[in-house]
Amino acid sequence: GRLRASEATPPPPGVLFGTAKEEGNLLRVSGERRGEAGADVGSMALYSSESSRAWVSFKDGIWEECDVVNSSEQQLTLRITQTGEQKNVERKKIGFHYRNPSAVENADDFLTLPNLDEPNILHSLRVRYWAGEVYSHTGPILIAVNPWKAVTIYEQTVLEQYKAQKSTKPHIFGLAAKAFRDLMSSRKNQCILISGESGSGKTESTKFVLQVLTAVDENKTGASASICSQVMLTNPVLEAFGNAKTLRNDNSSRFGKWINVHFDRKGTIAGAEIKTYLLEKARVIHQSAGERNYHIFYQACQSAGQHKFLQDLGLEDATQFEYTKVCLHANNTDDVKSFERTKQALHFIKFDQQSQTNIFAAVSAVLHTGNLNIGEDREGNSTMEIDKHLQQVASLLGLAPEGIKTAICCRNITAGTDVMVKPETKEKAIQCKDALSKALYSKLFDYIVKNVNVALRLKGAQVTMQVSVLDIFGFEVFQQNHFEQFCINYANEKLQLHFNHYNFMLERQLYQREGIELVESDFVDNSACVDLIEGKGWGIQAVLDDVCIMPKGDDQALLDRLTSAPQMKTHAHFDSAKRRSDTFTINHYAGSVPYTIKDFCEKNKDLLAADLVTLLQSSKNKFFNSLFENQASDATPSKPGRKGGGGGSVAYKSVSATFKTDLGSLMDAINAADPHFVRCVNPNGNKKANCFEDQKAVEQLRCGGVIEAVRMCRESYPSRYQHSEFVGTFSCICPQAIGAGDPRQQCVAMVNSMKIDAKQYRLGKTMILLKREVVDNMERMRAKLLGGRAVTLQTSVRNFLAKMELRKKRDTRRKYLGCVHLQSSFRRTLTRAKYVRMLQAVRMQERRKEEEEAKKRADAAAAAGGAAQKQAADSQVAQDSRAAVLQGLGDDDDSE
Ligand SMILES: Nc1ncnc2c1ncn2[C@@H]1O[C@H](COP(=O)(O)OP(=O)(O)OP(=O)(O)O)[C@@H](O)[C@H]1O
Ligand SMILES: [Mg+2]
């Protein structure tokens, strides 16, 4: 099956058995504590010693380790591990889950954990974090925990391993390589959706994905090789202009991006394209304490000393500018070096010297606009000195200083055919100045992205498919949540909807294949919340746009309209109960978020004063002129999509309407591709290595939809088996079902004989799908049964082995004794033979001597009678020699 419970599962005694409804059903049958049988067998032993461990939560999101001392259906007696304190608690009033056995806690895929719930997922993530594992799976989601330190898992050799499918450990390289493989095999577009909170590692993950995608084709030639390096070089450029130091991340991306990497039929890279979303314009004019403006301002200012062209554009030390002097440095950032890198990257992405000059002129114009000195006269009207900053802005933008001064400090009012000039208040003039800075910078950013895209287009290439990467802000909830959070959370709600639909679609396909009836309520759906935001005519966006075009439409009017609408009052995701004078609350899938209404209308309109737009469009500088070509203004109250004023012929569209359209096309692209999900997790709020904050991690798991995904899995039928596999695995606990016929019929017989409730399983054509708790229980029964059998088996095997051993020993002894016997017989035979040989030799010698003597005697008798003395002597020699031979014979016998 796709998802299976692990071999032996810890059945939470109270929970599982307490929920048994039917008399004699499976849950009641196995009503004993786990680990009692077969306690010495493998995993059962593990469970028996850990069976009472659990997690308890007295406060949302905080889980403590505990031991279950006693449990009943309503009551629990728990011993808190850390304090040793014993507590009696009511089940309903606390969060409680049994803990997974430690042997499986650091599983690569959390969906294989026996207990699938928040504390167990969190704990496994923590265990893996401390084991140095950056990546884990939760079914289709890859979870990446930012290590906040260099780790040695991104070398080229590792990349090669994943490309060659030699490693299956969870890794971003593995996910990207799989996306490419899927692209080649299915010929269907793929997308990698990366989300997470600020500082969780989305942008780093995106770069790793691009690293893989630009390395997949080893035979790439000239043009595509250069596109590959250009794709990688877009990072320093986009980061310089779109990233900034924040309290949460020294290199925080202040925009969302969607990168399409194009491929031709053969899988060769054929260009790329980038789309960006919601650049944080407000950062240009204001940063919180300890945060910086966009990197490029500091890079250009700090490098002005080394580059004359920067000085010529009026750039100087960052301390000299209002917009940059708040915070000058960012950790781990060398602005001068980064400037060189940005400039080089700009050069490679085909920004010629003139374009680069234009870019830095815009950067300088923004900074000098920030320094414009707006004062107030006695009548309360705004004033502005024509100082060096105004002159610098005017010269950079190709305008007259007076024109800028009038456009910022005054307003033309048309009454019939007359045009009157009305001075603005200081506050309005400052707003107008800041709006100019924001517009200038966002236009510059759009210009850069547009030209990057021109460079990344490969002429003549046949684009047939693409792999896309989405690096987008995750769900956000702060103390104060503004229009930006509203847009971000709306995007995340849409992405979550896609995620749910994707999983639902997979399920539906499986159900259809298996011929199982689909129960819609089995699946989680957040479309109601999306409707609340984008509902035609009544949703929050529609009301917002409506209020924005009303002459007296302001934030208060918006809040009144929202809270008084009947659809809102009864909407499950619009929290009327939490209504306050300045906020409205949305219950998002990841939690409820109160939004502060202040500035919603202003930020949604995001318009420049009509006089300013007209002025900018009259610029002598072609570059700035073209930047503001399509700028709408606040000249006439207009309906979204209608022609706006100022620049005259431009269709006005509010920020939320634009974002809705952008998001719509993004979702279309995502829906048309096969998705791969990455959820990045920031383990702590201090950018520190080796620090894991439980509550922070658990919030992100919730916001990233991981807990929701797990819940979906739990609520559907996560344990899946082919019929024969099911029979093979579990027939031992109901052997009577084996004779029932084919595997499907056997499955039916098995579930019937175990009295499993019909709601707890679905029987398909080839598979059986079951609730996890049912399988948990069956696994336990199986482990118990097999445990008992294993003991018998072990006893017999040990008996058999012991007998074999004894027999072997006896054999050996017998062989030893045989050997000794054989040796002694052999030696005896040898000795005897030798003795006989020697005896024969002696006899022979004696005989020979006797013959010689006889001969001598005969000779002597013949020679003379005086030889009698000599004969006596010879006889003595013969006697000595015989004694010596006998002596030698005796020695030989001894040595043997
Ligand atoms: N896999 C990793 N290995 C080592 N360090 C990492 C890894 N991922 C992230 N980091 C560190 O964390 C920092 C923040 O990561 P990153 O900029 O990718 O976060 P982000 O999710 O894009 O945040 P934001 O939403 O603010 O843009 C990086 O600058 C880097 O120092
Ligand atoms: Mg980022």
Descriptive notes:
By secondary structure, this protein is of the alpha+beta class. Among the domains are: 492-603 and 659-667, Up-down Bundle (Methane Monooxygenase Hydroxylase, Chain G, domain 1), CATH 1.20.58; 811-862 and 870-895. The strands form 7 sheets. Strands 6-7-20-8-17-11-12 form a 7-stranded mixed sheet, with helices on both faces. A 5-stranded antiparallel sheet has the order 4-3-2-1-5. A 3-stranded antiparallel sheet has the order 21-23-22. Strand 6 and strand 7 (141-145) form a beta hairpin. Residues 202-203, 253 line the site of magnesium ion (MG).
Task: Estimate the strand proportion.
Answer: 5-15%
Averaged pLDDT, please? Answer: 86
CATH architecture of the domain at 492-603 and 659-667: Up-down Bundle
Radius of gyration: 44 Å
The helicity comes to 40-55%
Largest beta sheet: strand ordering: 6-7-20-8-17-11-12
**Would you identify the regions where 5 or more consecutive residues have pLDDT less than 50?**
1-48, 639-649
Q: Per the principal axes of the C-alpha atoms, what is the gross shape?
A: elongated
CATH class of the domain at 492-603 and 659-667: Mainly Alpha
Number of strands: 23
- N-end to C-end Cα span: 77 Å
Small-molecule binders = adenosine-5'-triphosphate, magnesium ion
Characterize the largest beta sheet: strand count, sense, and whether it forms a barrel.
Answer: 7 strands, mixed
Q: Remind me, CATH topology of the domain at 492-603 and 659-667?
A: Methane Monooxygenase Hydroxylase, Chain G, domain 1
Tally of helical segments: 31
What class would the helix/strand composition place it in?
alpha+beta
Region (Actin-binding): 663-685
Protein name: Myosin motor domain-containing protein
Biased composition (Low complexity): 860-874
Pfam families: Myosin_head
